[in-house]
Amino acid sequence: MLERELLRCKQEIRNLQGIKEAQQQRLCALEGCVLQLKQDLLRASMTQDQLTSLNAELQRKLDDRSRLLNECKEELGTKDKLLEQHKHKLENQQEQAGLQRKLECKHNGLVMSRHGDEALPHITGHTYQSPGHFSSCSGAAELQLVRSALRSLRSVFRDQDPQHHTLDTLEQGIASLTDRLAHTHQGGGNSSARSRVTHTQHDSWSPIKMAHSCSSPVQSSSGSTKVLYFTNHSHTPCMVHISKRLGEVTLRDVKTALDRDNNYRFHFKALDPEFGTVKEEVFEDKALVPGWEGKIVAWLEEDLGENRT
């Protein structure tokens, strides 16, 4: 009985040892698989790190190329702007040089016409009206051409450029010279004396002398009216003559004498019974212009399209 029990126990022990060995073999196989998986995972991690590093390097190179491209675009845009500025400046200089040459030609022609008109009475020995009338018409046409050239030249400068004062002075001097030449031809026997006075007063067209002539109270002739006017471009007044008596001058006469169109507003110094000295704006071309102490004082303002009150 005991022997059978012993044999049975031995048999169970052998079975358990077989199961144990089988489990150990299976465990060894599983450990080999786990080790292989760990190796594969390590290789995958290393490959991922390499790809991440390569991606970062490529991104850095792409950023550098983008930065260089932006810098090249900015530099190209700056050079294009400089090229446009130089081109515009060159065009302005060429236009200004052309207008300056045209103005010098007109000025030289006007000076030659003045000298020719002064020499004719001495050569012929007598006074005549028909050539004087022709010279006056020619001088008016030349003055209109000079004013057109001055207006084109004025558009080249900025609004606050000090050259506007020089242009105003030159225009006022040319207008005064033409007006005095016209009075010289209409003066009869006193033409030689008036010509000498005109020649003495207009030897120089410097801004100092023009400003002095505009501000000094000189007695005007009985058949003409002095117009003292200010512009936005210059603080120094300029003066022209209108061949009408004070009280007969209209706004159209002032516009014609100053060569200004409807793009300007005209204010005149006047005396109001209630408020005293005022600036009166005149709108109608046929309206009479108010005077002040024997002359007309005007202010020219560019009309920017605002509503007039």
Automatic annotation (TrEMBL):
Provide a GO CC annotation, any one: focal adhesion
A GO biological process of this protein is: Wnt signaling pathway
Q: Where is this region: Disordered?
A: 182-204
Q: Which UniProt keywords apply?
A: Cell junction, Coiled coil, Cytoplasm, Developmental protein, Wnt signaling pathway
Where located? Cell junction, Focal adhesion; Cytoplasm
Its family remark reads: Belongs to the DIXDC1 family.
Q: What is this protein called?
A: DIX domain-containing protein
